[in-house]
Amino acid sequence: MQKTQLLGFGTIGTGVVQVFQKNAEVIHQRTGIEMRLTRVADLDITTDRGVSLPEGVLTTDADAVLTDPNIDIVIELIGGYKPALQFILKAIANGKHIVTANKALMAVHGQEIIEAASRAKVDVMFEAAVGGGIPVISAIKENLCVNRFSTVIGILNGTCNFILTKMTNQGSDFAPVLAEAQQLGYAEADPTFDIAGVDTAHKIALLSALCFGTRIDFNQVYTEGITQISAVDIDFANQMGYKIKLLAIGKQCDGAIEVRVHPTMIPKSYQLAEVDGVFNAVRLSGDFLGPAMLYGSGAGMAATASAVMGDVMAIGRSICSGAVGRTPIMGYCQDQIVDQPLRPMSEITSHYYLRFTAVDCTGVLAKISTILGQHDISIQSMIQPESHAPDSVPIVLMTHEAQEANIVNALKEIDLLDIIRQPTRLIRVEHDLD
Amino acid sequence: MQKTQLLGFGTIGTGVVQVFQKNAEVIHQRTGIEMRLTRVADLDITTDRGVSLPEGVLTTDADAVLTDPNIDIVIELIGGYKPALQFILKAIANGKHIVTANKALMAVHGQEIIEAASRAKVDVMFEAAVGGGIPVISAIKENLCVNRFSTVIGILNGTCNFILTKMTNQGSDFAPVLAEAQQLGYAEADPTFDIAGVDTAHKIALLSALCFGTRIDFNQVYTEGITQISAVDIDFANQMGYKIKLLAIGKQCDGAIEVRVHPTMIPKSYQLAEVDGVFNAVRLSGDFLGPAMLYGSGAGMAATASAVMGDVMAIGRSICSGAVGRTPIMGYCQDQIVDQPLRPMSEITSHYYLRFTAVDCTGVLAKISTILGQHDISIQSMIQPESHAPDSVPIVLMTHEAQEANIVNALKEIDLLDIIRQPTRLIRVEHDLD
Q1: Which superfamily does CATH assign the domain made up of B136-297 to?
Q2: To pair with B263 at 20 to 30 A between CA atoms, which of A226, A327, B22, B108?
Q3: What span, in angstroms and rounded, lies between the C-alpha atoms of B153 and B293?
Q4: What fold does the segment set B2-130+301-336 form as a domain?
């Protein structure tokens, strides 16, 4: 029998308790392992979560239990950096295996945790940290491990995708849809972490590290959220055959790695464009695999608990068969992981959607396109709809592939022109998925 | 170092050799294991496959090498029943672990292989048997193992999906598109196995066994191919908001298991409806996971080789860590797998698309709907387009949920009416995916 301690009895923690209680039979049938949840620690042990635990299981003293020699596996669902990191390090020091859903912690303090785990010869698993119930981390580390990955692209934040989907379907602007999402419980009271793209950045930092065998300095990940997306840009995207998604992009090309998060236009015909609402998806491209996509519930109590418990059982199997450490924590043997700086944003290339707001007179397009041309930017298509504003007109351009630095410099110059009424909107466009 | 023998140097075998040759470095970085391909056996060792092997590796004598004590893992890519089964059983008897892409063999003779492997304490893996490069088998057995699955639904045959996609996009009938698929190499010279649904049935038998923990008698799997699908049905489906796909369906509901393969109408808005061309996808629904979908290349040299080699490395890891048998071959402990008869087709319920071909006179719909009503079948929607045939008119009905036996009996009765000119076409409709 293996004994498990749960730290953090919130929503996902409650889901984990439910899996233990409802599916013990199927777990035993599949693994032959009897897994017991012997301790559940939370500061709040009075709120009714709708599940009942045997006497003595619930405790407020997480710290004390971490040294209990009867515990084999510690599940950390507290979230955030403190005290989660200290608890995890203490558990590892006491020989416990770790399962966590904490993307922020793994993205920022992963290295420290992994080194401690290596010394203590324990496993650390974090499938639930990315994509909720979708088994993408395991797929990269195990089944697809013979591939060299060129791209890993994801829709990884349910809140953002819910908001963008609503904005797209209703033609609404950002603020009212955010309010609606908050009412429905799909966005936090303070939604900054989600809508600013930080949560997505944590996740793509982890996926990129797993795919490319490199340590990713989270602070280098370019992160742009969805707060600037407007109904008008979604409408123009639609007219041109695109949808706007908050994409997390990891690429390995021309000897460098790109990891970035930003609103991105993708052709409507792409599978990723069909990922709507709170669902998540990850698209992987491997040299033998080709393209593949994994899709599912990106968050929520039940799906995340499924992933957490999948990890718990994997560790259970490893303990039983004496195979702890069978698969390296980050998918590459520790001594094979390299530090590789990310390609600076100025050096990436992309197609770009540019929306200029200009005075309504002749010669404007000529002035804009001249400056673009001087910066090596060529135009792929253009729409110039009738204006509804009294003194300005939108001009929407889609560029061919261009370098980000050139785009930034050109826009700086263009936005200084007296014919330009508002700062130009830029949205990157992805349509060369291999 | 671990040594591998490959049986069958065809297309996928060549892909496997390429993985060994091109990606040895990344495999070593990820696993720390040095894996060598020491023997490749095929009856034909003279054809140039575009890869070169060291002297002494290639042999025509597969059988002799199976007893070589230096070989740890045997990869079987011969396909079919004979001599693949004999080779595998001999390899197992000699303590070799098995990786195979052979769905027919696993679906029909899996039990014999698994029992032999259990006795010999070796692993048998077959990820490449279903869905090409998509890691679905492993997901069911490992990451998602804490779930009770209610449905597993797949598009599992690239040939059929290519043909149906072409028919849909071009408005063509079956025969010319099949010919085109054969020219392009997407269909075999004798395509029966694919287009009759047999290949799909092998795959869903395996997936259902893995999901539901039961032995599936392959002969009980209802199997209907795509040869009867016509452009006219695809067009009506489209008008009503549906696409026609060859779906493989495994369901566990009301205490019984259904496993069936047939052309199926699904709403265009479903993710599965977007799976086009030679791509495959599997949609799983688990009690905690909720719905999830895995999508990717369903066949082809490279993607299938990726899956084969994923299995080879998993076994390699298990050998190195002493964890052979860590995960049961069919996802459930052998003594927990039950024999459960499948629900007979007459007892399933579904929505149905019915296309009647009737004389063009008043009262026809009344007669049809009276008989349907007498068999407890109610109509959800109807379209009656103008006829282009001189003496008959199509009447297209979509039913509410009905029992298959009632539908069959009603159609028998209706098709005997003198107002009916041709046997009625029936296509099942799936739109209650949970």
Answers
A1: Dihydrodipicolinate Reductase; domain 2 (3.30.360.10)
A2: B108
A3: 9
A4: Rossmann fold (3.40.50)
Tell me: domain A2-131+301-335, CATH 3.40.1670.10, correct? Answer: no
Query: In the numeric block, which tokens belong to residue A280?
Result: 């998540």
Mutate to test the interface with B, among A289, A304, A309, A311 (most CBs of B within 10 A): A289
Collapsed DSSP state (helix, strand, coil) of residue A37: strand
| A6 DSSP β-pair partners | A40, A75
Residue A378: what residue type?
Answer: S
DSSP annotation string for A211-253: HHTEE--GGGSEE--STT--HHHHHHHHHTTEEEEEEEEEEEE
Helix, strand or coil, per DSSP, at residue B311 = helix
Q: Please write the tens of the pLDDT for every residue from B363-376.
A: 999 999 999 999 99
pLDDT digits (tens, 9 = 90+) for A325-360: 899 999 999 999 998 889 999 999 999 999 999 998
User: Average pLDDT of B248-256?
Assistant: 93
- Top mean pLDDT of B2-6, B94-98, B187-191 is at B94-98
- In this prediction, what percent of chain B has a pLDDT beyond 70? 100
CA distance B359 to B387: 10
Cβ atoms of B8 and B76 closer than 8 Å: yes
Look up the CATH superfamily of A346-429: ACT domain (3.30.70.260)
B96 is catalytic: no
Q: For tokens 């912690």, what's the residue?
A: A105
**How confident is residue A434, by pLDDT bands cut at 50, 70 and 90?**
low
pLDDT at B232 over 70: yes
- Report yes or no for ipTM above 0.85: yes
- Tell me the chain B residues in contact with residue A147 when contact means C-beta distances shorter than 8 Å: 23, 26, 306
Contact B286 A306 (CB under 8 A): yes
Contact B8, B79 (CB under 8 A): yes
For A157-180, write each residue's pLDDT tens digit.
999 999 999 999 999 999 999 999
**Residue A217: C-alpha distances to residues A202, A259, A356 (Å):** 10, 10, 34
Given a contact cutoff of 8 angstroms between Cβ atoms, the answer to whether A351 and A428 are in contact is yes
CA angle B211, B217, B218 (to 5 degrees): 90
Å between A81 CA and nearest CA of chain B: 26
DSSP of B340-379: -PBPPGGG-EEEEEEEEEE-SSTTHHHHHHHHHHHTT--E
State how far the Cα of A199 lies from the Cα of A325, in Å rounded to an integer: 28
pLDDT at residue number B290:
96
Element (H, E) at B36: strand B35-41
Per residue in B253-297, pLDDT tens? 888 999 999 999 999 989 999 999 999 999 999 999 999 999 999
| Tens-digit pLDDT profile for residues B75-91 | 999 999 999 999 999 99
Query: Distance between CA atoms of B57 and B418, rounded to whole angstroms?
Result: 70
Q: Residue range A124-137: average pLDDT? A: 97
Domain B348-429 is found in CATH 3.30.70.260: yes
**What pLDDT does residue A388 have?**
72
Q: Domain limits of chain B?
A: 2-130+301-336, 136-297, 348-429
Q: Which of A288, A322, A336 sits opposite B29 (nearest CB)?
A: A336
- pLDDT value of residue A427: 98
Q: How far is A362 from chain B (nearest CA, A)?
A: 43
Which is it for strands B256-267 and B222-223: parallel, antiparallel or unpaired?
parallel
**Chain A partners within 8 Å of B147 (Cβ):** 23, 26, 306
Q: How far apart are CA A214 and CA A337, in angstroms?
A: 5
According to DSSP, residue A172 is labeled: -
- Residue B434: the pLDDT is 60
